[in-house]
Hints:
Layout lengths: L2 H8 L21 H13 L3 E6 L2 H4 L13 E4 L4 H17 L9 E7 H6 L2 H10 L3 E7 L39 H7 L4 E5 L4 H13 L4 E6 L3 H4 L6 H10 L6 E4 L2 E4 L11 H4 L10 H22 L9
Helix pairs in contact: 2-8, 4-6
Amino acid sequence: MTLVQNFEIFAPKLIDRKEYFSPGHRACQGCGEVLALRIILKALGDDVVISNATGCMEIISTAYPQTAWEVPYIHVAFENAAAVGSGVEAALKALRRKGRIPDRYVKSVAIAGDGGTADIGLQALSGAMERGHDLMFVCLDNEAYMNTGIQRSSETPFMAATTTSPAGKEIKGQRTGKKNVPEIMVAHGVPYVATACPSYPIDLVNKVKKAKAVKGPSYLHVFSMCPTGWRCASEITIKLGKLVVETGVFPLYEVENGKYRLTMEMPKKLRPVEDYLKHQGRFRHLSADDIKLVQKKVDYEIKKLMDKVGGLKGWDEK
C-alpha cells in the first residue's frame, strides 16, 4: 500500500480517494516533491485552477502530448506563478460576475519550487500577497534548483554542497542559511501561513484544507525531500522527512492571523542534527566542528520560534 492509501483507511473522510495527479509521470525514485504534490492535490479536490512554474514538477508531468494533471492546469514561467495565479483569480471573479461561468467557488492555486518562490519568483509572490488576492501559494522546497542541475538557491541549507556551492578547503558548501519565506509572508500580513512535510501526511492535508478555505491570500511551505540532489538513498525519503522535523531543522507550525501554533508536538529534547545530516552526501564533507556550528544555528532558530509560539513547558533547547 502507498502512504496515502494507508491513511485513507484510518481517515476515509479526510481526503479524496480520487487521484488528481496520475501515475506514469517521470519523477525520480523516492521523489518527496511528487509525493507532496499528490497529497496536496487530493486535499484540494477538483474545484481548483493550478498555475505551475517551470521546475521539476512541470518537467516530469507535462511532456507533450501527455499530462499527469487531472485538474485545470497552466504551465507558466519560472518567475511568475504568483502573478499568473493572481490573474486567474481575477478572471474567475469577472467571469462569475458576468454570468459566463457557474456561480461556483473555484480556488486559484499557484505552485513553484524554492527557486521559483524564494529567488526569481519572490517579487511576484510579494505583490500577490500584498494585494490580497484570493490565492493559495504552495512552495515545494527541495532546497536547490534540482531540475537544471542541482544549483544552489536561497533555500539551500548552510554548508550543503551543490554544483554552484561546491565544498572545498576554504569554503564548505553553501555560505548562507535558508531564507525564511514563511516569516516574510507573515510580515506581509497573510492570514494563513504554514510549513508542512509529506512525511506527516495528515498534517499536510489539514493545512492544505485550511489554506484553501481562506478567502484571501494563503501560503504553504512544503519541505520536499530529493534523493537525487541530496545524494541519499531513495528508500529513506520518508525517514528523512521525519528526521528533519525531529531534529528541529524544519519545524512544523502554522500562523493564523499572526498567531503561531506548533502542529507537531515538540519533544522535550530534539534529536541531534547529525542524525539528519549523516544520511546525505551533500553534507559528507562536514567535520565534527562544522556539525556543531550547524547545530548551533538550528538551536538559535528553534529558540526564536519557541518565543513566538509562547514557549513550551518542559522543552529543553540544549
